[in-house]
TrEMBL record:
Record's protein name: Glycosyltransferase
Keywords from the named record: Glycosyltransferase, Transferase
GO molecular function, one term: UDP-glucosyltransferase activity
Family note: Belongs to the UDP-glycosyltransferase family.
Superkingdom per UniProt: Eukaryota
Pfam families to which the protein is assigned, alphabetical: UDPGT
Amino acid sequence: MSQPSQPLSSAASLPHILLIPSAGMGHLVPFVRLATALSVRRIAVSILAARPTVSAAESHLLSSLPSSIPILDFPLAPLDPSHFPPSSDPFYLHYEALRRSAHLLPPLLSVTGTSFSALIIDVSITSTFLPVASAANIPCLLLFTSSASMFALYSSIPSLSLSSPDFNIAGILKIPNSSLPPPLRDPTNLFTTQLVDNSRALPLAQGILINTFPALETEVLIAFNSGQIVPSLPPVIAVGPLPLLGNLAENHPPGASQAMRWLDEQPERSVMYVSFGSRTALPTEQIRELGAGLEMSGCRFLWVVKSTKVDREETGEIEELVGKGYLARVEGRGLVVREWVEQMVVLSHRAVAGFLSHCGWNSVMEAVAAGVTVLAWPRTADQRVNAALVARRGVGIWPDHWVWEAEPRRKGWWRRRRLGIR
Ligand code: UDP
Ligand code: UDP
């Protein structure tokens, strides 16, 4: 998005949009970026914050928003987890709690006394919030937080046979069955039930916003807007790359964290940044093998290690994860941290040359915006669809034989993979 020419003026006379994210930093970050972009374009914005948040990172981001993005608190009644499969993802359970609270939105809005011009809601709450918005006569757009290619799959789900060897979408996008988000193979998984419901409701929206840009996903965007993918869809609008949060240099002075101080000491374009986003945990065995690989590679690296899906649950010492003696062996050449790093600031640092990424869509867009090459290791969900795009568009490379979270593991499987033995 280019910057607006006019500064924000008196909020009372401006159109006012309420943004409703679902859960997880991969959703909240693009919503906050969109809110920032709108607020500097003479549009008043508020963000609905469904509480309690799942992760500490979400609470922290919400509490650090500028006064130009006020928050409307939306307390959620907790769901009884015994009604859901025991393995249910905490973020998807939160989507579900929010989805079931859609009827509480109109009373909340009437208490605020604000007449909202439109809502922009997360795709994951589409099927319950769109009818409520329509009954309240408020135009409602969706923000899809992954790629347009993933949205092509998402919106086509009701008409696809999930057992096909591959999915040929409108003759412009071929997605192999092995790239299907693994939870979709289980019809009882919350991911599947919500996605199918949401996908059917898409035509009720007034528009669909995606954090992508035409040069990156040309054919898919054209196909959407000429009705070739799902004829009944509203306009699909590429709004990316969404502007970064605040002014990087101003908000993140050099040396502000251990990671930044370490990067400041490294030679230009010498460091591999290794991170799998905000909610992807690796089992200890994989952490050890990845550590061995980084050590053997001889490269400089900054590695954000994560062993639990929800940040509040991380405990213990890093050394327990990476193995005794590891930190001393790589000292000077590699830094391992287990904390939130300001990824956009890291990617924009002169010392960073490459990004080993799970290909969460925000990470891909941030790498593109910073001009950093991606080495893709997708782990689950939409990440293989995104990784294929990374490889296709020259954003980076994807060794597509690397395992995926859902693949069965035999003893020693990971070592055999690493050595190229099937
Ligand atoms: N992120 C960050 N620091 C971290 C981990 C993640 O700033 O230590 C940000 C990252 O820059 C991105 C978002 O959190 O904006 C994660 O979204 P993404 O779509 O890449 O992956 P997800 O976490 O949803 O799997
Ligand atoms: N999604 C959804 N319902 C679900 C799970 C995901 O509607 O139960 C949507 C989600 O909003 C996102 C897309 O499907 O835009 C890809 O979701 P995924 O879980 O792969 O990514 P993440 O939630 O980590 O960003």
